[in-house]
Amino acid sequence: MRTTLDWDDLRYALAVAEGGSLAAGAKKLGVSHTTAMRRIAAFEERLGMRLFERLPGGYELTAGGEELIETARGIGVAVTGLERRLAGSDLKISGTVRVTTADTLAASLLPGILAALKSAHPGIGVDLVVSNLFLNLTKREADIAIRPADDPPPGLFGRRLCSIGFAVYGAAMLGIEPQATAEALGGYPWIAPDDSLSMTAVGRWMPTALPEIEIAIQADSLVSACRLAEAGIGLAILPCYLGDGSPALRRLTPPLEAVRTGLWILTHEDLRRTARIRAFMEFVGNELQSQRRLIEGAIDGSRPVE
Question: Does the record bear Lipid metabolism in its keywords (predicted)?
């Protein structure tokens, strides 16, 4: 019997193969574990062959599965390319924009900006993906990225909005006096980023610049580090726009030039002329640039005005 391949079936198989497990594939597709398992089983039954070996460590492709997935990858590239080109021809300032950003921006500056965007462009809906990973815009994991970066991935279109200043913060209740350098505060307990943040500006700098400090606790998010610092557990290096926004914290150093990084807003080249993408990038980019002094740490918002 002749079997007609369905792209939706291939999409499920591809997600499981790239994730290495049923759970990872289901998460990527935004479906339940049961749905993914049922779809894969039904697909294998229609094909009359097993695509995956079910092993304790995950799903491993069979020889036949390897061949099918290799073809599916090529189809996936073609489909996402077509989707981008079709989306790029949209001239209406309406529709949903999938935006990825870092947790620090989502917890501080962006909510107010997105509220203003809704008033200016009520037809634009926003699907906000908060992640410290640089999602793949080429594969349409997101339409727009707003995030810290020194060198954004090639093939993307956008602009560098400003630099991001980072400084050392501690709970105001601790009564610690500000110092000229982070090293001068080395005798206090610290909150450090864990291995998942090792490639961020803070994660790269701290182990080499402050190798002897006492680590009170590690966190997988700078927002979590901020909350822990507010509780007085230790000092933390935070983006100034986050640390200055906390009444419980005090900025203890000037911005650390070695940690400074760029803030970018980016999209895929094929989407740059889409009306809603262009409107979003222009509005949000301009709003962020209007807060440049705060983002760069040029003003110390952690201290009351005297």
Answer: no
Domain count, the chain: 3
Same domain? For 265 and 134 the reply is yes
Question: In terms of pTM, does the model score above 0.90?
Answer: no
What Rg, from alpha-carbon coordinates, does the chain have?
Answer: 23
Residues 197 and 266 in one domain: no
Going by the DSSP 8-state scheme, the letter that residue 213 receives in this structure is: -
Assess whether 265 and 158 both reside in one domain. Answer: yes
Q: Kindly report the CATH number assigned to the domain that includes residue 246.
A: 3.40.190.10
Residue pLDDT tens, the chain, 306 long: 455 667 778 888 888 888 888 888 888 888 888 888 888 888 888 888 888 888 887 788 888 878 888 877 777 777 676 666 655 545 568 899 999 999 999 999 999 999 999 999 999 999 999 887 655 554 557 899 998 988 887 778 899 999 999 999 999 999 999 999 999 999 999 999 999 888 889 999 999 999 999 999 999 999 999 999 999 999 999 999 999 999 999 999 999 999 999 999 999 888 888 889 999 999 999 999 999 999 999 977 565 433
* CA angle, residues 34, 39, 44, in degrees to nearest 5: 130
Q: Residue 187: which domain range?
A: 166-251
